[in-house]
Write a structure and sequence with these properties.
This protein is α/β, with parallel strands linked by helices. The chain has a single domain (3-147), classed as Rossmann fold (3-Layer(aba) Sandwich), CATH 3.40.50. The chain has 5 helices and 8 strands, in the order E-E-H-E-H-E-E-E-H-E-H-E-H. The chain has helices at 29-41, 54-63, 80-90, 105-113, 128-186, and strands at residues 3-7, 18-25, 44-51, 68-72, 74-75, 78-79, 96-100, 118-121. It has a 6-stranded mixed sheet, with helices on both faces. The chain has a two-stranded antiparallel sheet with strand order 5-6. Strand 5 and strand 6 form a beta hairpin. Helix 2 packs parallel to helix 3 (80-90). The longest helix is centred in the C-terminal third of the chain and has 59 residues, at 128-186. The radius of gyration is 29 Å and the shape is rod-shaped.
Length: 197
């Protein structure tokens, strides 16, 4: 079952407003509505897609770009680890927050090790807006850093090509001078070029 909702923030337009494209993997409509309420009450502008099955989830992450993914840990035949694995394969730069009614500390640590940015217990959903904001801020910083690294690599590659071209010309000139000198020697004439090194 897939559901599209558009919710506008109740905050004054002059206040900071964060527009989010969210994927919610949640089989409980009630829990979904509570999650949505926490986010909109915190001032987020939300375009949210709710899916409840693995096939819908996979299709959604393959065919859409999301700012963040909120995933229930326990679903029928599908869990948070499987959802996270799919996200790591298909949309590795999208922050993934696991939401669960009950999750042990070891499972939470394993999720974080595998790439989840946070986990929220359903009885502590008041933490969700700050976790989402932090995840988005971290994602934005990573994207800025990734773009800077790409730009740096591009400039380094360009510099290397220029260096290779310049040094390559110098080496070719030295080789040609050596060949000319060798030919002049064979002809019994004096070398024309002095080659150092």
């Amino acid at each position: 079952m897939s559901c599209q909702l558009k919710e506008e923030s109740k905050m004054d337009k002059a206040e900071a407003k964060i527009a989010l494209n969210v994927l919610s993997l949640e089989d409980s409509i009630l829990d979904f509505e509570i999650i949505l309420e926490h986010l909109t009450s915190a001032g987020f502008s939300i375009n949210i897609t709710r899916v409840a099955k693995e096939s819908e989830f996979t299709s959604s992450i393959r065919n859409n770009k999301y700012d963040i993914i909120l995933a229930d840990f326990n679903l029928h035949g599908f869990d948070g680890f499987a959802a996270l694995k799919l996200c790591n394969e298909i949309c590795p730069n999208t922050p993934f927050i696991c939401i669960s009614g009950s999750i042990g500390e070891e499972i939470a640590i394993d999720l974080m090790k595998q790439g989840a940015v946070d986990y929220i217990l359903k009885d502590r959903l008041a933490r969700l807006p700050s976790a989402v904001k932090r995840a988005l801020d971290e994602s934005k910083e990573k994207e800025i850093r990734r773009k800077a690294e790409e730009a740096l690599q591009k400039k380094m590659d360009e510099l290397q090509r220029f260096y290779d071209l310049t040094i390559g010309r110098e080496l070719k000139m030295i080789e040609l001078k050596k060949e000319i000198n060798e030919l002049l020697k064979q002809m019994g004439k004096e070398e024309k070029y002095k080659i150092v090194g």
